[in-house]
Write a structure and sequence with these properties.
- This is Tryptophan halogenase family protein.
- By secondary structure, the protein is an alpha+beta fold.
- The chain is 36% helix and 19% strand.
- The chain is built from 16 helices and 21 strands.
- A seven-stranded mixed beta sheet has the order 5-4-14-15-16-13-17. Strands 7-2-1-11-20-19 form a six-stranded mixed beta sheet.
- It starts with 9 loop residues before the first strand and ends in a 14-residue tail after the last helix.
- The structure holds flavin-adenine dinucleotide (FAD).
- The site of flavin-adenine dinucleotide has 39 residues, from helix 1, strand 2, strand 13 and helix 9.
Length: 511
């Protein structure tokens, strides 16, 4: 479609981390007539973490025409069916946040509603009625089938090495015409009206552009330092501000098709299985635990020897006041960050790129209106994701440390308080605009944390008990049977990788 207004002739991206190269690949593909240039500094480097993703990355890769097997081979990637939460409700408990389906969510046959009514007579928890949850339990993986049967009603994401993903997209973006410039930006030249004119590099070169994408990471060189956009601080709600990260050898066990996050004394740890290694990290609140004790707690989580020393990262939850100001758009860490509990950072990057492309190509409005719309959407989305992350904490029964007492007793944002009320009082999963997570995700967390409605639709009781029981039993059996016949995650992955040039060498210690 030809846009009704002029597209920028030159887009300059500052930063060559995952956000910079995702932006370059997306823009070079969608706007072939526009010159795209990425300025990055090897001396500064990238953040070098980020391993778990969200299912919509598949659409982003598809838009770029990326072959899944090649992508998995290039990034050391594995498949992800969701996240297992351990010790969150209280120590010793676990539940699964699925990328699947729990059957009807409303009406007389709402599956969760019939389960709540008759669950005592069912084997296992609500997760037994969700195919990818059962697949994950048994270490199985297969891509969804065609059609609309049970085997088609789930999606999946990936675990991968974000640095290798950046390098993979760097190659792809350059093949599509993007240009790479190595150099450190030391000053920024501006027009009289405040717009950015050019980036000035340490060696004296200038890189001029019409539109600038700030992907400079936490430094936020353009949006923060140059344009002075303040920071909307979420740390009063989300005080976690540090992370230790360490790669470990692959454990001898089967390759898990899910991320595992375990609640700890003052935060939580992640375990992310990649092809050649397992990523571990501990995200914590430095107000509630010392860095050294947090490091020890991380090392105690490892199930195989570390491959390197643990690295400490510092961050603050929140986002820039504006994501688009003058002719600068901040994407990735330069725009904001929320703790990586639900793997939302890379999701926010490709979502933002999609919005920018849509606004640039489809809207006839001049730039200030585009910027205002983009800022409103991004701000809402960060707030929605903040609420979803807070949900994991506020429902916990843990009170065993100062951190958990704080996280369970603090005042909540009104938007989240209303959602909790609607679910508890009426069994309604309320949705706002620009949600990052759909009703199924909210349901998985509410029920996984033991938070069930006190009142539900009277229609549920109109369904004869025998009929509802038969429906539940039928779904339970069908899911168990489907999962039992699926390949092990590792076998499926190896078959997928077998045709690629960079197929993984066989592992000596595979059982
Ligand atoms: C502890 C932790 C865990 C995370 N886990 C996940 C996860 O599981 N899933 C997920 O989706 N995300 C995760 N993230 C976020 C993820 O790492 C980032 O969103 C992603 O890597 C993109 O980073 P970026 O490109 O915005 O920034 P960076 O990787 O920091 O890149 C910044 C770029 O800007 C360049 N640059 C900066 N200043 C200058 C300058 N003056 N001149 C020239 N170049 C400059 C740098 O050289 C670099 O190329 C995590 C983040 C943290 C902190």
């Amino acid at each position: 479609m030809t846009p009704a207004h002029a597209l920028p002739a030159r887009i300059v991206i500052l930063g060559g981390g995952a956000a910079g190269w995702m932006s370059a690949a997306g823009l070079a593909t969608a706007l072939p007539g526009t010159a795209v240039e990425v300025v990055e500094s090897e001396a500064i480097g990238t953040i070098g973490v980020g391993e778990a993703t969200f299912p919509s990355i598949r659409q982003f890769n598809q838009l770029l025409g990326i072959d899944e097997a090649e992508f998995l081979a290039a990034t050391g990637g594995t498949y992800k069916l969701g996240i297992q939460f351990r010790d969150w409700r209280r120590p010793g408990t676990h539940y699964f946040h699925t990328f699947g389906d729990f059957g009807p969510l409303t009406g007389p046959m709402a599956l969760w509603g019939q389960f709540q009514r008759l669950g005592a007579q069912c084997d296992g928890g609500l997760g037994e009625f969700c195919l990818p949850t059962v697949m994950a339990q048994h270490g199985r993986f297969q891509t969804p089938s065609a059609g609309d049967g049970l085997g088609a009603r789930y999606t999946y994401a990936y675990h991968f090495d974000a640095t290798r993903y950046g390098a993979f997209l760097c190659q792809l973006a350059q093949q599509r015409g993007a240009r790479r410039t190595e150099g450190q930006v030391v000053a920024v030249a501006r027009h009289a009206d405040g717009r950015v004119r050019a980036l000035q590099l340490a060696d004296g070169r200038e890189v001029a552009g019409d539109l600038f994408i700030d992907c400079s990471g936490f430094a936020s060189v353009l949006m923060g330092q140059t344009l002075g956009q303040g920071f909307v601080d979420y740390s009063p709600w989300l005080p976690l501000d540090r992370a230790w990260a360490v790669p470990a050898a692959r454990a001898g066990d089967a390759l898990a098709p899910y991320t595992r996050v375990t609640a700890l004394e003052a935060g939580w740890s992640w375990r992310i299985p990649l092809q050649e290694r397992t990523g571990f990290g501990h995200v914590f609140s430095s107000r509630h635990i010392s860095e050294e004790r947090a490091r020890e707690q991380l090392l105690a989580q490892l199930d195989a020897p570390p491959l390197d020393g643990a690295r400490l990262l510092r961050f603050q939850a929140g986002h820039r006041e504006r994501f688009w100001h003058h002719n600068v758009i901040a994407i990735g860490l330069a725009g904001g960050f929320l703790e990586p509990l639900e793997s939302t950072a890379i999701f926010l990057v490709h979502n933002a790129i999609g919005r920018v492309i849509q606004l640039l190509t489809q809207s006839p409005a001049p730039q200030p209106e585009l910027a205002a719309e983009f800022n409103a959407q991004q701000t809402r989305q960060y707030a929605r994701i903040r609420d979803f992350i807070l949900l994991h904490y506020c429902l916990s029964e843990r009170r065993d440390s100062a951190f958990w007492q704080h996280m369970t007793q603090q005042a909540l944002p009104d938007t989240l308080a209303y959602k909790l009320h609607a679910w508890r009082e009426t069994g309604v999963l309320h949705n706002y605009d620009d949600e990052g997570f759909d009703e199924t995700s909210w349901l998985a967390i509410h029920t996984g944390m033991g938070h069930w409605p006190q009142r539900t639709s009277p229609w549920l009781k109109e369904v004869p008990v025998a009929f509802a029981q038969a429906q539940l039993a039928q779904r339970h059996a069908a899911i168990a049977q489907l999962a039992a016949h699926m390949p092990r995650h590792e076998d499926f992955l190896n078959t997928r990788l077998a045709g690629t040039r960079r197929a993984r060498p066989p592992r000596g210690d595979t059982p």
